[in-house]
Design a protein that fits this description.
Blueprint (H helix, E strand, L loop, with lengths): L1 E4 L4 H30 L4 H21 L10 H14 L6 E4 L2 E7 L2 E3 L1 H19 L2 H4 L2 H20 L4 H18 L3 H21 L1 H11 L10 H13 L24 H34 L3 H25 L17 H18 L1 E4 L4
Antiparallel strand pairs: 1-5, 2-3, 3-4
């Protein structure tokens, strides 16, 4: 057989561009009041998001037209760099704290989240590692599961300690889905899950703020001005939007009622301004991304492409589910951006780069001799 190049997946390409365009629009709509009050410039956040979007588009098209096999030889350097960057957030002169968490590295006027790079680094490492190993090795614990488990645990603990529980969960989700697709024995995965459950309960219970978030999730109206404030304001925003919304840029909750309205809770503003219809459109777009992402994984010309596509798709969808689940009170409150839509450069640039890799994988088609 030979590999034939074709055009990138049109469905996925259009979906990603629409999501990013919606994001730029909603970042401005949700942030112009805050920008004016804090910085004296209503366009403060819009201008930055446009800069991020331009950079993201550059890396997006670069990834589309760069053979995904090219990244294989950079697997270990990217992995080592990502772990080093995760460690550097704890250096006072480099790490930047905000909202009680130390998740950013600040260099001059530029800051970024190393955890975004770490998610891609783990996907790339696991795709390369599982592809390189023989089937017999993958099914053994020592040669198959243990090496990626060690890497995942190191990343998990570094990110969890920032603290960033939601990104730690995404790291965990990527690890399990890629091992499953890669051919790891189900009994080994099951044993690992059983072991992880009590550890997860311990992690949730040992920090006071996590216990408070769990209790506020169960009954946010018990403490409406403190631990339950975020979710109550989010539900008010979603509920006041009704079916068709109150109109673009007409949100009331963005007037400093709903915290993080341009980042973690931007989906609530979408629901308020564009209504139930607007939120359904966003969910449909992510559903299309899920469909096309795993379709690309199934149709990939090799195992490396299959694992890379599955890992990238899982990362984006896990993050979307957690974000939407938080703002709709389906899961306890935790801070995480909505991919392609929330304000922020690190998340947008990395997600667009990963989407570009997905599209590049879709360009490689297996063609049988004589076909």
């Amino acid at each position: 057989m030979i590999i034939e190049k074709k055009s990138p997946d049109l469905w996925l390409f259009i979906t990603v561009i629409i999501l990013m365009a919606i994001g730029v629009c909603m970042v401005f709509s949700s942030s112009y009041i805050m920008g004016y009050k804090w910085y004296g410039d209503s366009y403060y956040f819009l201008k930055r998001q446009l800069i991020y979007a331009i950079i993201a588009l550059v890396v997006f098209f670069f990834a589309i037209y760069t053979d995904y096999h090219y990244y294989k030889k950079f697997t270990m350097p990217i992995l080592i760099l990502s772990i080093a960057l995760l460690s550097m957030v704890y250096i006072p002169s480099l790490g930047r704290a905000a909202g009680g968490a130390r998740r950013w590295i600040k260099v001059g006027f530029f800051s970024f989240q190393p955890s975004e790079i770490a998610k891609f680094a783990l996907i790339l490492y696991m795709a390369e590692s599982l592809t390189r190993k023989q089937v017999e090795d993958i099914k053994t614990f020592i040669r198959g599961m243990l090496p990626p488990l060690i890497i995942m645990v190191v990343m998990f603990l570094l990110i969890l300690n920032e603290p960033d529980f939601s990104t730690s969960l995404i790291i965990l989700g990527i690890f399990f889905i890629m091992l499953f697709i890669g051919g790891t024995r189900v009994i080994q995965l099951f044993a690992l899950i059983v072991t992880a459950i009590p550890l997860g309960i311990l992690i949730l219970s040992r920090e006071e703020y996590r216990r408070a978030r769990l209790l506020s999730f169960l009954d946010p109206w018990k403490d409406p001005l403190d631990s339950g404030f975020h979710i109550i304001q989010s539900l008010l925003a979603l509920g006041s939007g009704g079916i068709f919304g109150i109109g673009l840029a007409e949100s009331k909750q963005k007037y400093f009622y709903l915290p993080n309205q341009h980042t973690d809770f931007i989906f609530s503003i979408i629901g308020e301004e564009l209504g139930f219809i607007g939120t359904v459109v966003i969910i449909i777009l992510f559903t299309i991304l899920l469909w096309r992402g795993f379709r690309i994984a199934l149709d990939s010309s090799d195992q490396f492409g299959t694992l890379l596509a599955a890992g990238i798709t899982s990362m984006i969808i896990f993050q979307s589910i957690i974000n939407i689940g938080v703002v709709t009170k389906m899961i306890p409150t935790t801070g995480i951006a909505l991919p392609f839509i929330s304000f922020g450069g690190s998340s947008l640039i990395v997600n667009m780069f990963c989407a570009g890799i997905l599209l590049n994988i879709s360009r490689h088609k297996v063609k049988e001799y004589g076909a």
